[in-house]
Amino acid sequence: MKLVTLFKKSRKMAPEYVPGRCNIGARGRAIRLATGVGIIALFVAVDVLVLGPVFAPFRLLLAIPFYIGLLAALEGTMSFCVLHASRGTYDLHEPTGMAFGRSDTKMEVRSDKWKKLDRRKARVMHLKALLGALVLAGLLALT
């Protein structure tokens, strides 16, 4: 019972913008996480079902869609959108879960120091997604 209570408390995110930590809301997180997991699952299935007999180094090209999927999944799990960070914005009540398009709730980050923290977090997330994509594509190429 205590584990469930702890888990519920850990899932609750701050309802406001936190520089370098949180720049999207619950709807944006859910959509990004579902999109990322879907992309990864789709291309793993493509690799297993279609690209099986293909030359292994060619299969390393799957790192590109894996990077996109892992970045979206990271955004969903970390409550942080790298596109918002690059634009100096945040949106905790996104109507579509995407950083592009029209949103009446998108706000500008006011401080240059906060923008710098956001850009640093985005670079780390890009690096994690890239490394994860290379590892995943490499593992699939070896099979």
Structure description:
With 143 residues, the chain is mainly alpha-helical. It has helices at residues 2-11, 26-49, 56-59, 63-78, 82-87, 112-142, and strands spanning 89-90, 107-108. The protein has one domain. The protein has six helices and two strands, in the order αααααββα. A two-stranded antiparallel ribbon has the order 1-2. α2 runs antiparallel to α4 (63-78). The longest helix is centred in the C-terminal third of the chain and has 31 residues, at 112-142. Residues 1-11 have low confidence and may be disordered.
Give the ordered list of helices and strands.
HHHHHEEH
The biggest sheet amounts to: 2 strands, antiparallel
Return the structural class. Answer: mainly alpha
Overall pLDDT metric: 84
Characterize the quaternary organization of these chains. single chain
Walk across the major sheet and give the strand order.
1-2
Low-pLDDT ranges:
1-11
Q: Report how far apart the termini are.
A: 41 Å
Strand coverage percent: under 5%
Q: How much helical structure, as a percent, in the residues? A: 55-70%
Count of DSSP H/I helices: 6
Number of domains: 1
Shape annotation: elongated
Radius of gyration: 17 Å
Number of E-type strands: 2
Write the layout of secondary structure elements.
Elements: H1 2-11, H2 26-49, H3 56-59, H4 63-78, H5 82-87, E1 89-90, E2 107-108, H6 112-142
Antiparallel strand pairs: 1-2
Helix pairs in contact: 2-4, 4-6
